[in-house]
Design brief:
Layout lengths: L6 H10 L7 E4 L6 H9 L2 E6 L2 H11 L4 H13 L11 H4 L4 H17 L2 H17 L3 E4 L2 E4 L7 H19 L6 E5 L12 E6 L8 H4 L2 H7 L22 H18 E12 L1 E3 L3 E3 L2 H11 L2 E14 L5 E13 L2
The structure holds S-adenosylmethionine.
Length: 335
């Protein structure tokens, strides 16, 4: 199920909650920064938490402050560098997903980026490189797994050039700092914020039964030299990623998050949570809407609305229909 969380949805929620300058928003599962970027665009202060090194890295790069002329200059130097065969220090895992010439390009550009840039500029270029690499790969994400799908691949240098150009356009569009945006490594079950800090929460927690955050980004992690997240930090994940998801563990974790959200919200704060039912090959659909409503009301929130935004058949591996799984937005308010 493709997630419905998008810039347009977040912008609509920010406007619908009448948030503006002087207000502060929390996204305790910030991922690659959709809420943070929308807040920055609209000039609303925002805090984002996550526990995933790759998500934190990408969010920080997307929200960084850059000099566009400097980005143009370093991109020009990088793309003009004549190719020299690099030493490819890739694991057998990584080698499965790229032909040798693409791996050589990746390691060549990585080496150059490490020579040219430092700090924020280097991370910006590396993010463009990893994005380009993922367009020139045989890797295909399938739930929590990464599989090989052979296909014709475009030239990495061209893809990198295009990515750098649209990433610079995004920086220009967002302009100079209009709001204070903070990205922090923090477990949403134990939030690092004082009581009654935020005017709103806009977030999308991991969906029940979805484990892609633990293992599905290994290719990107290896290119960037980042560690995968430790499973015990991920909401609702069993310690051993081979195990089947346990709805009880998920609801237990989610209820800790809901209690923490209540604690850090100011009275009158609005909360928007995007959630989805779980779909399990043996058990079928596990409903999330009612348990989430019960835990929110037990924490002290008032439910304003639960809007169904998507309905899908939940199917078994043999494509047998097991039920209908719904995706919804929960709107809550702290009295
Ligand atoms: C559905 S995604 C959020 C997507 C996000 N809206 C975006 O724009 O990318 C859920 C996120 O929750 C993070 N996460 C999982 N467990 C967490 C925890 N205990 N504390 C904070 N973040 C967690 C995952 O790493 C993932 O980035």
């Amino acid at each position: 199920m493709k997630e419905a969380f998008s810039r347009d949805l977040v912008v609509m929620l920010i406007r619908g909650f009448y948030l503006g300058k002087g207000n502060s928003v929390l996204d305790p599962f910030c991922g690659v920064g959709t809420t943070l970027l929308a807040c920055k665009e609209l000039g609303v202060d925002c805090w984002g938490y996550d526990v995933h090194p790759l998500m934190l890295f990408v969010s920080r790069v997307k929200l960084g402050e850059y000099d566009v002329r400097e980005l143009e200059e370093v991109s020009r130097v990088l793309l003009a560098a004549p190719f020299e065969r690099p030493e490819v220090r890739a694991s057998d895992f990584l080698r499965r997903f790229f032909p040798q010439h693409v791996l050589e390009d990746i390691f060549f550009f990585k080496g150059k980026i490490e020579e040219i840039g430092s700090g924020a500029i280097r991370d910006f270029l590396l993010t463009a490189l990893v994005g380009a690499a993922m367009e020139c790969t045989w890797a295909r994400r399938d739930g929590a797994a990464v599989k090989v799908r052979m296909r014709k691949l475009p030239p990495l240098r061209e893809v990198l050039s295009r990515r750098l150009s649209w990433m610079r356009d995004d920086v220009e569009r967002l302009g100079v700092k209009r709001a204070s945006i903070t990205v922090k490594e923090c477990d949403a079950r134990r939030m690092d914020a004082d009581d009654e800090t935020f005017d709103a929460v806009i977030t999308s927690p991991p969906y029940l039964g979805k484990f892609e955050y633990a293992r599905a980004y290994r290719v990107e992690e290896e290119i960037l030299g980042l560690e995968p997240p430790s499973p015990e930090k991920l909401l609702g994940s069993p310690k051993n990623p081979e195990e089947v998801a346990d709805p009880e563990l998920y609801f237990n974790d989610l209820s800790k998050v809901v209690n923490e959200m209540y604690r850090v919200c100011k009275p009158g704060a609005d909360v928007a949570l995007l959630a989805s039912d779980g779909c399990f090959p043996k058990r079928g659909v596990v409903e999330v809407c009612q348990p989430l409503r019960t835990m929110a009301e037990r924490a002290g929130f008032k439910t304003r609305r639960a809007l169904v935004i998507n309905r899908r058949f939940c199917t078994s591996p043999s494509r047998r229909k097991l039920g209908i799984s719904q995706e919804y937005i929960f709107l809550l308010r702290k009295p």
